[in-house]
Every structure is written in structure tokens, then in C-alpha cells.
Amino acid sequence: MNESPETTTVPAGKRARFPKPVLFAGMGIVALVLIALVVAVALPNRPTDYQAGSPEAAFQDFYEAWQADDIEGAYGHLSTAVTKDLSLSEYRRLDTDWSWQRNQDRRLILLGADVTGDRATLHVRVDEFSDGGMGGIGGQRYSSERSVRLAREGGAWLIDEPLIGIEPAGYGY
Question: Are 61 and 51 a contacting pair, CB within 8 Å?
């Protein structure tokens, strides 16, 4: 006996109807995608929490202090090798020259860390965003990578180069 699968033909001019479970499943998938998009757009990007006492956490603390315009706090995260050649008053003056960075639309992404004894190098990607032309049309992202040196002193990780935000201060280094 030669059985063929049942087929349904839809007369010309009529639309095929989907079974209700398929229709509801499709609507459910669309709803989930929309909810995910709303959550992704509505929630701010939150900084990563690094293990306390790590070079990553030390850099994050330094950068957050600088972003908050806490110059003394940021300066307190610099190593003695840096602060012996760079006074707090000089650091304040340099910060005035570089303070425009605080208003930049940027994101720092830690790409990795190399730690050897009491020395560490963090590899950071800096993404900067531009609105583009009139009305913000054609916005672009510019990325660059840089390394940040840290040294462990008295059990704490400190920035071992004169940074103003993420930029090298260029003071004697």
C-alpha cells in the first residue's frame, strides 16, 4: 500500500491559518525580544566589580576618584615613584589642562592584566563616542588601546605612571 502524507491545499485567494499554539509562541518570542531590548537600553552600563586588592580594582578606584573630580583621591592612588617627582599642586595644574576628559562620552574596557610579583600592567581599550554631525546623525566610535603600569607598595596597588584620567600627564616620563 502506497501512503502519501496528508496535504492541505488552500484555495486561491484564501489565507492559510496558523494553529493558535504556533501563533501564541511567535507572539511570545516577539514579546521577549522587545523586553530584552528595553532592558538593554534602559539599564546603564555598570562597572565591573573587581576583587578587592587587585590591580584592576586599584585602577578602577583611581579612575572613579578622578571622574568624580576628587583630585586628592586620585593622587593618593599614585605610586611614590610618581609622587616624588609630581607634587599634588602640580597634579592639580595638570588636571586643569586635562579636565575636559571628564565630559567625554567614553568607556574603558579592561582587556587583560599581566602581573609579575609587585608589578602589573593593565591592558585597556578606550572607546570614545561621537555624536556625528548635526542632530547626532552618523555617530561613531573611536577605539584605542593603552597600557597602565601599577606597582604594589605596602600591600596596595598604585598607579606607577603619572595619569590624568586615562591620559599620561607627560610629566618627566
Answer: no
For 3-7, what is the mean pLDDT? Answer: 58
C-alpha torsion sign, points 52, 58, 63, 66: positive
Integer Cα distance of 102 and 170 in angstroms: 18
Number of structural domains (the chain) is: 1
CATH number for the domain including 151?
Answer: 3.10.450.50
Q: What is the pTM of this model?
A: 0.66
For residue 84, the SS3 value is coil
Instruction: Give residue 100's domain range.
Output: 55-168
The tens digit of pLDDT for each residue in 53-95 reads 899 999 999 999 998 999 999 999 999 999 999 999 999 998 8
The answer to the question of residue 31 being in a domain is no
Does residue 111 fall inside a structural domain? Answer: yes
